[in-house]
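Suppose a colleague, Dr. K., hands you the sequence of a protein chain of 160 amino acids and asks what its three-dimensional shape might be. Before reaching for any lab equipment, you can write down a predicted structure in C-alpha cell form. Begin with the sequence itself:
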Amino acid sequence: MAALLVVAVAGSAVAQEVARGPVTNLPLPRYVSMKASEGNVRRGPSLSHRIDWVFKRRDMPLQITAEHGHWRRVQDRDGQGGWVHYALLSGARTVLVEQDMLTIHARPETAAAVVAAFENGVVARLGKCEPEWCRVSSGGFRGWARKSALWGVAPDELRD
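The predicted structure, expressed as C-alpha cells, is then:
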C-alpha cells in the first residue's frame, strides 16, 4: 500500500512538471490574447513553415498548448490553430461570449440587476473570476457573467 502511494505521488509530480512550458515555465495549457490585429498561423515553429491561415481579430482569446523557442502553438475556441510567434500574443486576458444575448449582471448572482446583454461572439476583457462568475467588460459596459458562457477561462480558474 505504501509503495502504491509513493508511485501515485511521484506520478503526480511528473504530471505537474509536464504541465509547464519548457521555455517560459508557465502552465500549459494557458490562455492569452492576440496582441496584433493580424497574425500568421504556421504549420510549425519557424518562418520556413507554411502559413495555414491568418488570425484577423485583435484581442481574440487563444489557448497556448505548446512552446518552442519564440513560438507558441495556439488554438481558438473551435480547436483550430497552429504556431504563432510570441510577439503577436499578449498576456492580457480576454474571453469570447458563447451564448447569444448573455446577460451581464451588476453583481455575481442571477438575481442582481442586468446591466447589459452581450451577443454571441463578443470579445470581452476578463477581470476577477469567482467559482461560477467572472467580471467582464466590453463596449463601455462591465459586470458579471456566468463563467460557463465564456470561452477563454478555465472552469476551475479563480482570478483576483
